[in-house]
Amino acid sequence: MNDVLHGTKASFFQPLQQHAPAVRYLLPMSWRRIDGIRPVFNDVSLNGSGLTWVTYADVPESYCLSLLYDELSASYPEGFLLRGCCPDTAEFFSSHGCSIIRTGAEAVLDLSSGACPASKKIRAAIRRGRRHGTVQEIPMHDMARESFAELRLRTAHGCKPVLRHVFRNMPEGPCRCFAFLSSTEKWLAAVTVSRRGAYAYHTELMLRDRNAPGDIMETLISGVAGVLSAEGAGELSLGEVPFVIPVQGREPLQSLEALMVRLASWWKHAHDSDGLFAFKDKFQPCWRPSFLCASRQRELSAVVLAELAVEMGFSSLFVYQTLKRIGWPTSTFS
Predict the structure, then answer these.
(1) In this structure, are 287 and 229 located in the same domain?
(2) Burial class, 158, CB count within 10 angstroms (exposed 0-12 / middle 13-18 / buried 19+)
(3) How far apart are CA 211 and CA 193, in angstroms?
(4) Which residue range is the domain that position 26 belongs to?
(5) What is the dihedral of CA 111, 114, 119, 123, to 10 degrees?
(6) Low-confidence ranges of the chain (pLDDT < 70)
(7) Does the residue 112 lie in any domain?
(8) Which pLDDT value is given to residue 1?
(9) Residue 82 has what pLDDT?
(10) Which residues 6+ apart lie within 8 Å of 79 measured at CB?
(11) Which helix (DSSP H) or strand (DSSP E) does residue 227 occupy?
């Protein structure tokens, strides 16, 4: 039986094929593997629930999930929260007594057999995009950081409140930056990626100049996938589409999952999940559920979800878009 995507106009999703354990057991989204001895955690306290949300982490190559769980438990004895966990990782934490719920669907390009598959429509878009420039990996020196910041202001979302703690905002350290450059070296689009597993990469940011020609994002993403595939990567995640929940067979939604799906219809003016899903689905990805995990000292609840919405900046984005929709001033958000 096909699997259903709740919370979007799409009817079905394609399950991800099984990979080697090195790819299957991934870090949460925006966590990354590094050369080091001990993990470094970035966190935010959620005072209402008593949990600490571990937003990002740099985790040594030698750390398996068991070691990571022990380190998290010791560092956050009152309870920790993780978002963006893939099914196998969420299952591991669940087996250690953690509460888990699905929060969205992650689009994953399978690079294990070479370049990612592309439909005739995407191949045509890539050919058109190549007329406008080239894809290059950009080392992050001062001039490149300035170009990156300028591009961000030229995007369609440049003046909106920025989401926090959901992705790495700057391509620093182990993150890699790829840009689509015009013939005059102007940045028309950029993608940043981090490495969350031995052979797995995660897309942090996708930026496009609002006045750039069409088809360049398709060309850029295809170019990034080609480079990573040639290096031996097994997958490239295009990130999560929130509030879109893959459910296998007749598996029912949990009460909190059902609540998110219902609320998502009220939030479409603030976050267009349908549009985001449609864009990522162009690349014929495998879709897998994305999970929120809370350690066994605390239960997931509507309070936790509300706190996350505030800390992520989603509540500010919702207010901004609502005021803009009804014609009220939004200058307080500048």
Answers:
(1) no
(2) middle
(3) 24
(4) 3-107+240-333
(5) 110
(6) 1-24, 114-117, 158, 171, 174, 247-250, 269, 297, 330-334
(7) no
(8) 30
(9) 98
(10) 49, 50, 51, 52, 294, 295, 296, 297, 298
(11) helix 216-230
* Same domain, yes or no: 195 and 155: yes
Q: Do residues 83 and 152 share a domain?
A: no
DSSP string, 147-203: HHHHHHHTBTTTTSPPP-SSS-SS--TT-EEEEEE-TT--EEEEEEEEEEETTEEEE
Number of compact structural domains in the chain: 2
What is the model's pLDDT at position 262?
A: 82
**Residue of 83, 62, 31 whose CA lies nearest to 260:** 83
Q: What is the CB neighbour count within 10 angstroms for residue 61?
A: 10
Task: Report the phi/psi class of residue 311: left, alpha or beta, with left for phi > 0 and alpha for psi in -120 to 50.
Answer: alpha
Residue 1: C-alpha distances to residues 14, 125, 272, 305 (Å) = 11, 32, 28, 31
pLDDT given for residue 129 in this prediction? 94
Burial class (CB in 10 A: 0-12, 13-18, 19+), 130: middle
Last residue of a domain, one of 235, 267, 291: 235
Strand order in the sheet with 12-13: 12-13, 3-6, 245-247
Predicted pLDDT of residue 254: 87
The residue whose two tokens read 């290059």 is 136
Does some domain include residue 303? yes
Distance CA 69, CA 41 (A): 13
What pLDDT is attached to residue 74? 97
Nearest 10 degrees: Cα torsion 202, 239, 117, 61:
20
Tokens of 308: 């996350």
Residues 180, 162 within the same domain = yes
The angle formed by the CA atoms of residues 258, 262 and 268, to the nearest 5 degrees, is 135
pLDDT given for residue 20 in this prediction: 38
- Predicted TM-score (pTM) of the model is 0.87
Asked if residue 226 and residue 143 are part of one domain, the reply reads yes
Q: Does residue 225 share a domain with residue 132?
A: yes
Which is it for strands 12-13 and 187-197: parallel, antiparallel or unpaired? unpaired
Predicted pLDDT at 315: 82
- Taking each continuous run of H as one helix and of E as one strand, the counts in the chain are 10, 14
